Amino acid sequence: MDFEVVLDHIGMGFDDFISLPERLDLVKDRLINQLDQTHIYIETATYFGPDRRRMEAPDFTNEQRRSIPHSHTRMEIRRRPDTGVEILRRQIFA
User: Fold this and answer.
1) Does pTM surpass 0.70?
2) How far is Cα 36 from Cα 74, in angstroms, rounded to an integer?
3) Which residues contact 50 (CB under 8 A, 6 or more apart)?
4) CA-to-CA distance for 37 and 76, rounded, in angstroms?
5) Over its length of 94 residues, how does the chain's per-residue pLDDT go in tens digits?
6) Which of 2, 11, 21, 43 is most buried, with most CB under 10 Å away?
């Protein structure tokens, strides 16, 4: 995969962290795995990004991902090389 292609994927908002140097085939697979998949993003007053709450320890909540008074927007998105980022569904929780 060309370096320019990797930069295009990053520009589309891929949320995988890549530590370089890394084997090219691993980087390619990790980026391709994010295409044509539904990803959930959360927007609060202080956070916009992937829904990472599923990865938090049971007794821990990242305060950045909270909104007072707990209102937030939940978006389902999909990335496609031909059309870019597409919002499939947007839910506003007040």
Assistant:
1) no
2) 19
3) 15, 39, 40, 41, 42
4) 10
5) 677 777 777 666 666 656 677 788 888 888 888 889 898 888 888 888 887 666 556 666 656 555 555 788 999 999 898 888 899 999 999 8
6) 43
For residue 47, the 8-state DSSP code is -
Radius of gyration of the chain (CA): 15
Beta bridge partner(s), residue 87: 77
Contact (Cβ atoms closer than 8 angstroms) between residue 31 and residue 12: no
Q: What is the pLDDT of residue 22?
A: 79
CA neighbours closer than 13 Å in the CB half-sphere of residue 77? 22
44, burial (CB in 10 Å: exposed 0-12, middle 13-18, buried 19+): middle
For residue 35, give both structure tokens. Answer: 């295409």
Tokens of 57: 């320890």
Say what the pLDDT of residue 77 is: 93
